[in-house]
């Protein structure tokens, strides 16, 4: 499972789309309305899709995401594909066996532009919590190895 206290609310966009580019009908006769719903829920960060993402709520002053692995595992690598990576990110990755006692296992002190950000040699953990210190507070995808 995955959880966070806060995420951005969903957004719906609607646009007119011309269905017959080479011979459009007059008065919009060959146009259709197309809608797309954008969601920013925590599970989007682990759904295997680069087309969805988790984004923290604007009001969240300490954006973070906690991943529950279901059981204690030996973690070799944790990859984070942040939203807007060219702007740079700094972060702290913590691990826990019980979701009460947390230990810092990796960090990026200064914002750096890269994708993905990679933490290695994490060790045993059931829970992993990423705290975004600077940069756009969102993740396209998290991968754990």
Give a description of the structure.
- The protein is built from no helices and 9 strands.
- The strands form 2 sheets. Strands 1, 4, 5, 6, 7, 8 and 9 form a 7-stranded antiparallel β-sheet that branches. Strands 2-3 form a two-stranded antiparallel sheet.
- The two termini are 16 Å apart.
- Helix content is 0%, strand content 57%.
- By secondary structure, the chain is an all-beta fold.
- A hairpin with a 6-residue loop joins strand 6 and strand 7.
Can you summarize this structure?
By secondary structure, the chain is mainly β. The chain has no helices and nine strands.
Q: How many strands, what sense, and barrel or not for the largest sheet?
A: 7 strands, antiparallel
Proportion of beta-strand residues: over 45%
Secondary-structure element string: EEEEEEEEE
Global structural class = mainly beta
**What is the radius of gyration computed over CA atoms, rounded to a whole number of angstroms?**
19 Å
Number of helices: 0
């Amino acid at each position: 499972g995955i959880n966070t206290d806060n995420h951005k609310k969903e957004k719906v966009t609607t646009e007119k789309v011309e269905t017959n580019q080479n011979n459009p009908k007059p008065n919009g006769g060959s146009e259709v309305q197309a809608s797309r719903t954008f969601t920013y829920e925590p599970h989007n960060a682990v759904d295997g899709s680069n087309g969805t993402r988790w984004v923290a709520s604007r009001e969240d002053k300490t954006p973070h995401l906690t991943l529950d692995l279901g059981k204690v595992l030996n973690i070799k690598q944790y990859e984070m594909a942040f939203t807007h990576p060219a702007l740079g990110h700094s972060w702290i990755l913590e691990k826990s066996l019980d979701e009460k006692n947390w230990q810092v296992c990796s960090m990026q002190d200064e914002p750096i532009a890269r994708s993905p950000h990679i933490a290695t040699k994490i060790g045993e953990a059931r829970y992993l919590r990423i705290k975004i210190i600077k940069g756009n507070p969102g993740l396209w995808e998290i991968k754990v190895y």
